[in-house]
Amino acid sequence: MRENICEDFQETVREYLIRHQSILDIISKSQETNAYISRALTKAITQCGCIELNSKKINLPESSTISDIKDAYNSQLKGNLCSTCSEIIEQELGKNLFYIVALCNALELDLEDILLKENKKVKALGRFNCT
Ligand SMILES: [Zn+2]
How many A from CA of 93 to the centre of ligand 1? Predict the structure, then answer.
């Protein structure tokens, strides 16, 4: 195993991506695994009940500062994932990451470079990063 987890994972995905090597398969599997993350989160709320969604419109005065806005918004979740839901969501995130990395590999992009550039961009833009 390499010390660089990004490089190591890219190599693992390169080795074990067998059937879905077409770029169309990769992007559709990425979308599919993303949907499974949403489904697992939904089931944690509606079937397990370990977390609750406390969603509502947030009304802020026009004079709100960026700091006010940051303080007003949150995940709108109440509670904590139980160990079962946490494990399921981690597995779904892992599957999604697999296809994100497969996309990097198909396009000959370096995951670590992407993470470093994005981290640098977010830090440079600070609160003005509206992604
Ligand atoms: Zn749960």
Answer: 16
The rounded Å distance from CA 39 to ligand 1 centre is 13
10-19 tens-digit pLDDT: 999 999 999 9
Rounded to the nearest angstrom, the distance between the alpha carbon of 67 and the centre of ligand 1 is 32
CA of 48 to the centre of ligand 1 (A): 5
**Per-residue pLDDT tens over the stretch 65-108:** 888 888 888 999 999 999 999 999 999 999 999 999 999 999 99
Taking each helix axis from N to C end, the angle separating 111-125 and 83-106, rounded to the nearest 10 degrees, works out to: 110
Instruction: Spell out the domain ranges in the chain.
Output: 5-128
Alpha carbon distance 60, 65 (integer Å): 10
Is domain 5-128 in CATH 1.20.120, yes or no? no
